[in-house]
């Protein structure tokens, strides 16, 4: 009989959340994530296979993981993504499987994703203004992304979140428009402080905006609690909610509950640490022991701060959002 553990790190945090990147490829080139010319793509043989993904998720569940978020790059460009979702959702011990996507292909996949066991979907959307969206993403695909939001609503996912990265001088004027979405639809819009990692590690300080700016735009927002790393608010007559995620202005390391697996099979106990532990070629109890040790030795905190870039040696397109 398989015994599933409640796994705590050496600081007493319950680590039960795995963010799993299934590809480094993406159909956008967002300015804070990838260079305009794109990235040197991993070879097919360097990406985790469906079988390797299934074994890593199985071992992670034995070590206490109950929630898995499938990410990329853009996960919906990964061949066999529906099969991957099914395999993850069918893993004993895994109770919650969700996905983060840029929304562009969601109209094609929404129904299949839900049938495969995806309960919740997050859609990255940095602007409701077409010109600003094109400038940030470097592609004219805003309509497709918005279609993905509406297809998700129609498919009936338990939760639909829109993730908006705040970029100074670019999309602050979108804040009110995003808030209006939560007034009219049962969606959760989450405003995220940009982190100095990868492409934006050396950006000018003015491009880093505190999530508290949202409260300046909408002082009528009512605080309704905290969910994970998100402080939650609601418009008085809103159907949805508003979330603020503040990795820079308000570190949430003391409550961090996650580990990450990169698309080429490296375990990252902390997003902003240089530590990466190879899991490829390891199976069974050996794999479980490596994951268990990595969880226990998870760093207490990152040193990330405004003007102090991440120590991560991998870009976000490979790590996953």
Could you walk me through the main structural features you see in this protein, from its secondary elements to its overall organization?
- The protein is 27% helix and 19% strand.
- It has 321 residues and is an alpha/beta fold.
- It has a domain at 17-161 and 252-319: Alpha-Beta Barrel (TIM Barrel).
- A 12-stranded mixed beta sheet has the order 7-8-9-6-5-4-3-2-1-10-11-12.
- Helix 1 runs parallel beside helix 2, helix 1 packs across helix 8 and helix 3 packs parallel to helix 5 (142-155).
- The longest helix is centred in the middle third of the chain and has 14 residues, at 142-155.
- It starts with 16 loop residues before the first strand and ends with a helix.
């Amino acid at each position: 009989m398989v015994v599933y553990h409640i796994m705590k790190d050496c600081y007493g945090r319950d680590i039960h959340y795995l963010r799993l990147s299934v590809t480094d490829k993406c159909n956008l080139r967002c300015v804070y994530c990838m260079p305009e010319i794109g990235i040197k793509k991993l070879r097919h043989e360097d990406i985790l296979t469906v079988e390797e993904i299934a074994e890593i998720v199985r071992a992670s569940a034995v070590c206490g993981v109950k929630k898995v978020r499938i990410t990329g790059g853009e996960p919906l460009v990964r061949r066999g993504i529906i099969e991957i979702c099914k395999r993850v959702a069918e893993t004993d011990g895994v109770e919650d499987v969700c996905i983060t996507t840029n929304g562009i292909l969601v109209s094609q996949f929404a129904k299949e994703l839900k049938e495969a066991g995806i309960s919740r979907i997050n859609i990255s959307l940095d602007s409701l203004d077409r010109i600003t969206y094109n400038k940030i993403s470097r592609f004219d695909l805003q309509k497709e992304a918005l279609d993905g939001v509406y297809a998700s609503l129609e498919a009936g996912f338990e939760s639909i979140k829109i993730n908006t990265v705040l970029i100074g001088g670019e999309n602050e004027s979108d804040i009110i428009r995003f808030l209006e979405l939560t007034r009219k639809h049962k969606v959760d819009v989450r405003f995220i402080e940009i982190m100095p990692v990868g492409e934006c590690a050396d950006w000018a300080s003015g491009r880093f905006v505190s999530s508290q700016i949202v409260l300046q735009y909408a002082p009528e927002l009512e605080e309704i609690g905290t969910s994970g790393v998100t402080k939650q608010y609601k418009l008085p007559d809103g159907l949805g909610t508003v979330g603020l995620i503040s990795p820079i202005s308000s570190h949430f390391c003391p409550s961090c509950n996650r580990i990450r697996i990169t698309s080429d099979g490296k375990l990252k106990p902390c997003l902003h640490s240089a530590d990466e532990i190879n899991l490829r070629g390891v199976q069974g109890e050996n794999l479980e022991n490596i994951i268990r040790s990595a969880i226990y030795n998870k760093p207490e905190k990152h040193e990330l701060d405004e003007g102090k870039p991440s120590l991560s040696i991998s870009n976000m397109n490979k790590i996953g959002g």
